[in-house]
Amino acid sequence: MVELTEETTDESPGKANLFVVHLGQDDPSKCTAEKLRRLGMLSYLPPHRRRGLLLDPYSETAISCTDKAMVLLEGLTAIDASWRKAVESFRGLSWRSDRRRALPYLVATNPTNYGIPVNLSTAEALAAGLFIVGLRKQAEELMSSFRWGHAFFELNLRYLEAYESAESSSEVVEAQKGFMKELGFAV
Fold first, then answer.
1. CA-CA to 29 of 20 to 30 Å: which in 35, 53, 66, 172?
2. Are 132 and 65 a contacting pair, CB within 8 Å?
3. Which of left, alpha, beta for 17 (phi over 0: left; psi -120 to 50: alpha)?
4. SS3 labels along 84-132
């Protein structure tokens, strides 16, 4: 397990409120959002309610440390939907584009999509967003709810730390491009 040291704890106190628009498209027994809701770590929102920053894989803006104040003030929201229905699920939401952020390249460690780039569970997506904006401790607490949660940080720590240290969305994208090139993907 990746242990957070004094150097890696959050710089400022506070926790972000976490929200999920739960569309009920996947197996309830494997639903990470449902488990986190039962544990009191997040709240469900109806699709027409908008709170905080929305993690949207189709956004043109990457999440970055510049989003920390908004996340602390208004919260972080994820959509819990099947990846097979992702396009239609996100298309149906009426969130302003300035409130949508994409996560950069990361690899899933959840049992359903282990090792698959980008196909993160809702818990992994929220933890990644928290980590990147600088709320590492809250991200670790979230993932400690899953027996496989430590693997997310072990596999993605290099990426997450680079994205967290980027000073803007465009720097996050540049870091991602560097990783993609390193991995042999066309950039």
1. 53
2. yes
3. beta
4. HHHHHHHHCCCCCHHHEEECCCCECCCCCCCCCECCCCHHHHHHHHHHH
pLDDT of 3 higher than 50: no
Which helix (H) or strand (E) is 182 found in, with range? helix 169-182
DSSP secondary structure letters along 23-44: ---S-GGG-HHHHHHHTTS-EE
Which residue, among 12, 35, 44, has the nearest Cα to 124 in the 3D structure? 35
The structural domains of the chain, with segments of one domain joined by +, span 15-182
Most confident by average pLDDT, 16-30, 95-109, 146-160: 146-160
| 168 neighbors 64 (Cβ within 8 angstroms) | yes
CB atoms within 10 A of CB 93: 15
- pTM beyond 0.70: the answer is yes
